[in-house]
Every structure is written in structure tokens, then in C-alpha cells.
Design a protein that fits this description.
This protein has 13 helices and 10 strands. By secondary structure, the protein is an alpha/beta fold. Strands 4-3-1-2-9-10 form a 6-stranded parallel β-sheet, sandwiched between helices. It has a 4-stranded parallel β-sheet with strand order 6-5-7-8, sandwiched between helices. Helix 1 packs across helix 11, helix 5 packs across helix 11 and helix 9 crosses helix 10. The chain binds D-glutamic acid. The site of D-glutamic acid has 17 residues, from helix 3.
Length: 283
Amino acid sequence: MIGFFDSGYGGLTVLRAVMSRLPDRDLIYLGDHQNAPYGGRSTEEIYDLTIHAVERLFGIGCHLVILACNTASAVALRRLQQTWLPKAYPERRVLGVLVPVVEAITRQPWQIDAIRSPSDQSELVAIFGTRMTIASGAYPREIAKRAPGVTVVQQACPQLAALIEEGASDGIIRPLIRQYSASLRAQIPGVLPDSAVLACTHYPLVANMFCEALPAEIDILNQPDLVGRSLEAYLSRRPQYDCVGKQGGHVGFLTTGDPVAVSDLGSRFFGAQISFCRERLAA
Ligand code: DGL
């Protein structure tokens, strides 16, 4: 079984992409709706909440967990992989959603020592994310290591994930997205980014409003699809996951929030009826 974790609804965008690529896998989704949003929390809070969630998914029987959350991937993943995981669960793996996007932008493999010739592309990439994803500097840092000619312009969207979590109307969300898009463009007057990343897994739920707010020439990367493709390739190289996850395409949904309310809004976002069960994470 493969576990997926997000602060709330956002990771459903990743889960949906993975389900369409890997229909035979058993998957389980955990949304920490009670503690969402994560994007304005401290590094320590995000780290602790992420560990609790991963531990819970390991406890259910997941050997592989995907942090379907840019904030957790940017702020907590590396530390978790380098310190906690090798001691606590040396046989298990936790992956994030940043790597496939950085690989796609730079057209280079994540492993620096596998890079044969450095990229000389010169492009401008816009990154929209939560306050903590942007503050972490993870995207510009990792892109610069692999493609120093790529310029990154970042825009934090501090209220957006919270409004999506609340199920706010388009009438409230649309002007806010316009405002964030205008703030990003004001950082680079007269210049258009070549591409944009909605680097919060909640944002694809309102991708249509980003498309409206940004000039059509900007290519909006599809992070959920990039993650799905990358996970498919990762699993194909690791037959050890066949026996722990390939059981018939069962998908389960857990939430730390109110399962009735979360199932209702979650089904709308997911585009199909889904039923969340209540999960209490250890304090
Ligand atoms: N969906 C998450 C992300 O990708 C978290 C948003 C939040 O909880 O603030 O960043």
C-alpha cells in the first residue's frame, strides 16, 4: 500500500493523477484537515505534523509514503529523510512532490552526480506557493544547482490554501488569484515567464482561475501529472514494492477533520464520491 499525505484536500490532485497511472495499486490518503493549512506554520510545526502523519501511514502498512504537499516537501522532507527515517524506519521510503517538478524544469536528473552536461537553458519560471514553500527557497535553490541559467521568480499566496480548504466561492478566490498573479508580474515588469508552477497541491483545484489570470503564453506545469509519471517510473525500477502495494486498486481516505464535511467537499474536488474515515494522529 502506498500512502499519500497532505495538510488537507490538495493532495487529492496528486492522488487522482497517480490513480489514473497506477490503477492496480492499493493507495491510502491521509488529509490532516484539522491542522490545515500548513503554509503559515513554523518549520518545527510542519516537521512534527509531517512525522506524525507519515508514522500513522507506516503504522497502517505503507512502506512508501508520498508527501503530496509542497510545504511539507520543501520544509520537512530532507531533514526527515536524513535524520529520522534512517533510524526509525530504515526499510521505508518517503518521497515528495518537488523533485519531479525540478527535474522537468531543468531537464536534469535529481542526482547531481548523474548530470552529464550542465544545462545551458535560459528561461524564466514563475513559482506560486504557500508562504513557507516560498520562504524555504527550495525551488530556486534546487533549480539553480541543475540549471543555473534558469531564473526563478516566486510569489507567496498566503490565503489561498485556507480559502480552498473552507470551500470558498469562486467569487472570493478569483480576485485573490488575480492579485497574486499581478504581484508576481510586478516583480518582472514587461517580461513574461516561460512557465509557471502551481507549487501547492491545493492550487490545481483552482487551476482554471490561474489560467484566466495569467497570459496564455505562459505554460502552466501540471505537477500532479509529473508526480504520477515520476512515481510510475520509480516503482517500475523497484520490484520490491510490487508485493506490498499491488493488490487490486483499493483506495482509502482518512482525515483528522470531520469526516462528513470532508467527504462532502472532498468529493466535489475529487470529481467522484469519496468517503473519508476519521483518523486521530498521535499528539
Ligand atoms: N497542499 C499543500 C502544499 O502543497 C499545503 C497547503 C497548506 O496547507 O498551506 O503546499
